[in-house]
Amino acid sequence: MVKGIEHNKIIGRLGRQSMALIDKEYFTLEEIEERWRMPHRDLAYLAENGLLRLSVRLFGASLEFGCYEEMGNGEMGSMALEHICFTGFRDLGEQDLFRLFRDGMVEVLHFATPANHYCRMADPGERVSVRLVDVVIRREERDRVEAMHGLVRGERRSGQPVFHQTDNYTEIRLGDLAFSLGPVQARIVRVLHQAALTGDHWCVGKAALRQAGSGCTRLSDAFKSQPNWRRLIESDGKGRYRLRLPSFP
């Protein structure tokens, strides 16, 4: 009987070791909280403020992909590019994530996309019901956030400045630096941050100004009230800009 118990213990240990070696492509919130040793409320903060992309798996969803273009009257209009039956992962938007963490469930119509593009349910009357247990973090997103914020098993690498934003980018902290931004400045930083999140770190300055609704023609003019703005935003000397985030070389 004792030998049988010991045998079962060994099999159990081998099973757990085998499970630990699974090369997973996505992870639950619980797994990430355990890996980063991070409380649930802090994970929610990262997601709600655009610092962590969370995804949901769709099966045969009818989606419309398109872009926004400026109309003749100066307003922006949407133009559908394609309709597809989609199976796979789509990222959730910040507003939906806020409601999801607040209420535990959200009805989703739109999914997160790069600037000036959109992805939504093809039928506007249809929604995807998403619960917290449905949400996952893809491997590449986990690795990106760990590199950007210096997270290694819940500890931060020394010397790595951490980027935080609150109040829709009007309050920024990068390491020991703090910035209180005006509305246009905040929208510019948001444009640059969204570019960083999508992997296309450099933005043309004039395009960023235009997307932010600024009347300035140079980024330096838009940030002239911020003497330390170049410690937040760097230039390549050719008219392109990016945030000084820790994951960049």
Summarize the structure.
The chain is an alpha+beta fold and 249 residues long.
Q: What is the fold's blueprint, element by element?
A:
Elements: H1 2-20, E1 26-28, H2 29-36, H3 40-48, E2 55-70, E3 76-91, H4 94-103, E4 105-108, E5 110-111, E6 117-121, E7 128-131, E8 135-138, H5 139-148, E9 151-152, E10 155-156, E11 163-166, E12 171-174, E13 177-180, H6 183-197, E14 203-204, H7 205-211, H8 219-222, E15 233-235, E16 240-243
Antiparallel strand pairs: 1-8, 2-3, 2-6, 2-8, 4-7, 5-6, 9-10, 11-12, 12-13, 14-16, 15-16
Plain-language structure description:
The protein is α+β, with helices and mostly antiparallel strands and 249 residues long. It has helices at residues 2-20, 29-36, 40-48, 94-103, 139-148, 183-197, 205-211, 219-222; strands at residues 26-28, 55-70, 76-91, 105-108, 110-111, 117-121, 128-131, 135-138, 151-152, 155-156, 163-166, 171-174, 177-180, 203-204, 233-235, 240-243. It folds into 2 domains: 48-140, no CATH class; 161-243, Arc Repressor Mutant, subunit A. It is built from 8 helices and 16 strands. Strands 1, 2, 3, 5, 6 and 8 form a 6-stranded antiparallel sheet that branches. The longest helix has 19 residues, at 2-20. The relative contact order is 0.11.
